[in-house]
Design a protein that fits this description.
12% of the residues lie in helices and 49% in strands. With 363 residues, it is mainly β. The strands form 5 sheets. Strands 11, 14, 15, 17, 18, 20, 23 and 24 form an 8-stranded mixed β-sheet that branches. Strands 2, 4, 5, 6, 9, 10 and 13 form a 7-stranded mixed β-sheet that branches. Strand 25 and strand 26 form a beta hairpin. The radius of gyration is 45 Å and the shape is rod-shaped. The termini are far apart.
Amino acid sequence: MHLKSVINSRFSSSVALLFTILPTLSFALRTPTISYITQEQIKDIGGTVELKCAVQFAEEYSVNWVKIGSYGTVFLSTGSTMVLKDSRFSLRHDQASTTYTLQIKDLQETDAGKYQCEVVLSVSNKVTGEVLLSVRRPPIISDNSTQSIVATEGQAVQMECFAGGYPIPTITWRRENNAILPTDSATYVGNILKINSVKKEDRGTYYCVADNGVSKGDRRNVNLEVEFAPVITVPRPRLGQALQYDMDLECHIEAYPPPAIVWLKDDVQLSTNQHYSVSQFSTADEFTDSTLRVITIEKRQYGDYVCKAVNKLGQAETKVNLFETTIPVCPPACGQAYYAYGEHVTASTFVILFMCLIHYFSR
């Protein structure tokens, strides 16, 4: 009985010891795991992000944060120590939850990429988890976008606009003063705005607007200039005036490049002299007003006058007829003062001026 009791006692002690060391052996044999890692992050440039990695059964192993990018792998931290010497990066280690938190402040565009939390088991074996960080960046229209175009009427035109940023920006086209686009709409979405056959009415400033919801976006002005042959309009194709009075003949020219403009009578080009005064005034690159003043009209100066405009794309001309009237037409006759006998105005001059005023207000 004594021997049996001794054996039973030793057996019980061995069993108790086994149950004491089994949890330790089981714990030692368990493979380290990453129980949690932050999901994909999208942050604004200049902001702050925290990337968390919680591990289990990794007390005896090295836990690292690394960044994997096009320039290779960069070690950021190992254990609870930062390896990267950048004040924007910091690390917190919570021993209770065995969580390693990587914080990045003042986010820059270059911070975007893949971050990896790894538990190194051996030279050739490790447990990893990854989180993708995207940094939102405001749009910036690139320099290879169209800045200006000069095209001939009827040609196909293509305006291009490209922009960087994250998320990828949307490109919207508009015209100055919200004019209708050649696409028959107020706006057009797309990187390339095409005009199959450009018209002179299409000329002007176009706005390329890049927007991705970050900041206020970016805008580029694109100037479209269309070359076209002259087009002439005449406000008054027939004008009457009395003998010995002046009269202004006018024509409005629309053309680009700016044309050469001449006035003709009986196929003879007129120039400024004692009988005529030729003047031109440009209101814009495409618009020119030309005025021919016939001075102190004589009989031979009545008839047809031709306003002619020529540029490299063609020419245009139109007629203005000057005929005789018995009553002076004003303006410009009303602005003239005729003197006789030195400094005294004749009675007939008063009559003429009075008749001019009646005619002017009765029109």
